Amino acid sequence: MVDKSFSDSGIKEKASIEGVSEEGAGPYQHTTADTEPGRAILFELGVEARGVERIPEDMRDVTHIWNKSVNMVLTTISIGVLAQQLFTLTLPHATATILCFGAVGTALTSFIATLGPKTGLRTMVITRFSSGYVGGTIYAILNILTQLGFAVTCVILGGQTLASVNPGTLPLIAGIVIIGVLSLIPCFIGYEMIHYYERYAWMPLFVVMLFLWGLGAKAGFDLSTEIAHEDVGCFGGIVFGSFTGWGPVVADYNCKMPADIPAKKIFFMTFVGLYIPICFVEILGAALTSISDPAYVDAFANGGTGGLVAQVLSPWKGGGKFILLLIALSVLTNNIANTYSAGLSIQALGRPFAMVPRFFWTFFGFVVYTVAGIAGRQHFSDILSNFLSILGYWTAWFIIIVLEEHFLFRRPGGRLGGYNLDDWDSPSRLPLGVAGVLAAGFGAAGAVVGMAEVWYIGPLGRMAGAEFGADLGFELAFGFAAVTYPPLRWIEIRLTGR
């Protein structure tokens, strides 16, 4: 994934707090919140002050663009585990599904990443240039729910695994709270601290994943015992969502990079940084569920993914427990990003929300997902599968709308001829948003008629499969939005001129 480095939080950001004018800072500059002594003191203590304001070109000096820590984590293993647990795919078919659906999802997400340096804007603010201020607010709401949903799965899984280090000594609730608090601290300080952690954390975690591969193979991957119902469509939608789930936040972490960095370089580095670690770890999760030893089967049945991983490491006794602790804490690299972007998305709801410092919304998100994790701690697999499926639906139409706006209307020589970035927070100069909202509605309709979930099967989804249907939700959401957005947007531009 693109490196999430924020290196201008020193003198330049201090100038912003003290009221020095900043091009493109909009109404968030010179506000009471920016000049409060309390906020300035927090900045002096290291708390990041910047929120969703546009980053001017002369304040960007980040050069690091390589990071894969956020996906070399236990949470990614749990997605691969669903292949056999819920959708009864054999390991070869699960592997093929992860590789194919993952490639599509990664390509779409990598496109969104290229817009960060071009605009200097956070991802949810970029949506205003296709769907207007109202549409951008709708996307911000969806993304808040998305990041909090990811965070819920992280704290539950991390808590489960902490409880598995020494069974019976740490309650699951306590484990969830510990993961939540540890995720909050770096986000409260800001991304300068997060940057260093994320840049290097993948190295020991990669070694740990190799240990799991080796110990799992020694225990014996037995493909002959796997149930083969082959629900590729539903699992493919979940895999797609696990990749495109980074789409609504990926520009948050490279908008401080110079605008002249080639888009191809951003695309390639994002693709490699997402695709390789996610595929590597999701396939590991699918492989671990093929171990037929009764001890491993019981560990998974009683302790979920955390229990299964603990059993895999059990031959190493005390050393295995130490590695299990590292794996439990690996969810922090993922959850830090969820927590940080949730705060930014709340600010992107509108000016009243942006006036409140980001670290307040970060704390608010922590409280919400920790409480939700405690409440849903016994239903992790259901929460994860349903959440990722729904995530795949809305990210599909969100990405195609932004993509079509960029290539059809904002390209040089296009109808609008580019982005007027000074308009990022001016509703009267942004698109009205009717086309974007309507196209999103058509995308949602496509998802509804094509989905196949435990709680609802759409008419087309039912026709596509046998007993339980086949999930076509994200494909139809993508297609419906892709077909309807260009003509609607053309009409909107013709009538409004923006």
TrEMBL record:
Membrane found in the keyword field: yes
GO MF terms held by the record: transmembrane transporter activity
Coiled coil location: none
Membrane topology: Multi-pass membrane protein
Compartment(s) where it occurs, according to its Swiss-Prot or TrEMBL record: Membrane
The keyword Glycoprotein is annotated on this UniProt entry: no
Residues passing through the membrane, by range: 69-87, 93-116, 137-158, 170-189, 201-221, 233-254, 266-288, 322-343, 355-375, 387-409, 430-452, 472-491
Family named by the database record: Belongs to the purine-cytosine permease (2.A.39) family.
Protein name: Cytosine-purine permease
